[in-house]
Amino acid sequence: MWIADKWTDYEVLQTTDGEKLERFGDYLLIRPDPQVIWSADKTDKGWKKPNAHYHRSTKGGGEWEFFDLPEVWQIRYRELTFNLKPFSFKHTGIFPEQAVNWDWFSDLIKKAGREISVLNLFAYTGGATLSAAKAGARVTHVDASKGMVTWARENALSSGLKEAPVRWIVDDCVKFVEREIRRGNKYDAVIMDPPSYGRGPKGEIWKIEDMIFPLIEKCTLILSDKPLFFLINSYTTGLQPAVLSYMLGMTVAKKYKGEVTESEIGLPVKDDGLFLPCGASGRFTGSV
């Protein structure tokens, strides 16, 4: 498992009975987690006095219960600053486990010895975008949600990256890639973090099982002659790490020299030393 264990402003304090107690900076949140199917004594005092608690509904979805949480607050990872706020479906605007991937590709960008152009698809609030930009890359940030792109730009401003070479684009990711193919534009790296299901700005339907492989195939047509890396993340139940590596092997690695690796990604749990699984990643690293 690839572990995001370099955080100082975030940690999973304890897990039990389908929930996790987390610290985001100065604030404690309780959120549901489907991986936590075990029971343990709630020894951390934070369980009794959280700043917010997201309660899962038996009918699907859920709602927040707030005790003492600001509307917006910030946490830092290395030199980046993220603006957080609770919103629907239990999210806060960041997936801390992705830091293990940010560190991986940031190191590749810094050592590349050339200017790197990165395409970030389904780019959410910009964690990967800001990490790549901070490492020195030019980034094209694409997400179908105008609100998410606005949030990402606010994170860039908070991180001192207002003038970084980032293109902020609100668009359906598949249609954007198809247009880039026609334009003849090329990228040295691709990052994609697709949802299980979603809709584009004009109602375009995305279903990962049907559309992820064709999208990867399309992306091979906009890669440069010497791609640096290709990263796929998945939180979809049933898509194991091996599936991600197989898709990369059948597409990117078939066309370019390099190495494909895959793993679960996770977070350390302070209380018991466990590592909480948080999804899967497949990586292609190009040959120098």
Distance between the termini: 26 Å
Largest sheet: 8 strands, mixed
- Radius of gyration equals 19 Å
Query: Into which percentage range does the β-strand content fall?
Result: 25-35%
The CATH class designation of the largest domain is: Alpha Beta
User: What is the succession of H and E elements?
Assistant: EEEEEEEEHEHEHEHEEEHEHHEE
Helix content: 10-25%
- CATH homology group of the largest domain: Vaccinia Virus protein VP39
Mean pLDDT: 94
Overall domain count = 2
How does CATH name the architecture of the largest domain?
Answer: 3-Layer(aba) Sandwich
CATH fold-level topology of the largest domain: Rossmann fold
What is the global morphology?
globular
Number of strands: 17
* Helix-strand category: alpha/beta
**Low-pLDDT segments:** none
Count of DSSP H/I helices: 7
Biggest sheet strand line-up: 1-16-17-15-12-9-10-11
Q: Could you walk me through the main structural features you see in this protein, from its secondary elements to its overall organization?
A:
With 288 residues, the chain is of the alpha/beta class. Helices cover 25% and strands 33% of the residues. The chain has an eight-stranded mixed beta sheet with strand order 1-16-17-15-12-9-10-11, sandwiched between helices. It has a five-stranded mixed beta sheet with strand order 2-3-4-5-6, with no helix packed on it. β7 (73-77) and β8 form a beta hairpin. α1 (99-111) runs parallel beside α2. It is globular.
Task: Describe the structure in brief.
With 288 residues, the chain is α/β, with parallel strands linked by helices. Helices cover 25% and strands 33% of the residues.
